[in-house]
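User: Can you help me understand a structure? I only have the sequence.
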Amino acid sequence: MAVIESVNVGVERAILAKTGRSGIDKRPVDGAVRVEVPAAGRSGLAADPISDTENHGGPDQAVYAYAREDLDAWEPVLGPLRAGMFGENLTTRGLDVTGARIGERWHVGDRLVLQVTVPRIPCRTFAAWLDRRGWVREFTAAGVPGAYLRVVDPGPVRAGDHVVVERPTHDVTIGLAFRAVMTEPDLLPELLPALDVLPDDVRARVLRRLPGD
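Assistant: Let's start by predicting it. Here is the structure, written out as tokens:
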């Protein structure tokens, strides 16, 4: 059964990053957290700070989800990883996040509906937070990026909420999109069936890669 194992909200702190500060340090919280459609540069979760508003947050990156199973797979390499350690707002269990299809909807609890948009792209802030040299390259090679989601219907989320997945008919997954964007641009045309759901910047990359363009 797919569930939200942990809801995590950031603590803004100084870090070796573009802005000098970051909210990547997400910590599990008790009780319900309100999730709404955010403005540009803001998180979809109440009281979740974003420092690099140019590159993070906004409607297409309102919520970031990572699977507990994938955190567990990293532990032999990185050591124990608590929920939120990868900067995820939602730590899931029982969900194949890498295999999630672009555009699929997650019905969370009684009211909240989220839609899968794009994979997480690793950055220097992520590497600085983990204090791991070569982390961007290592994370990219693993191909297990987690997923950003937009808010379709606002509502509360809490640890223990069940997730019901409504999948589109195409096979464009988070894993495929990550490879296409990060390492295999020849795969970009394969994202075409999900074009209407992709954020503008990724959509433009797909269209530029189509034959004849």
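Now, to help you interpret it: Residues 10 and 25 are 5 Å apart (CA to CA). The longest helix spans residues 68-78. Let me know which part you'd like to focus on.
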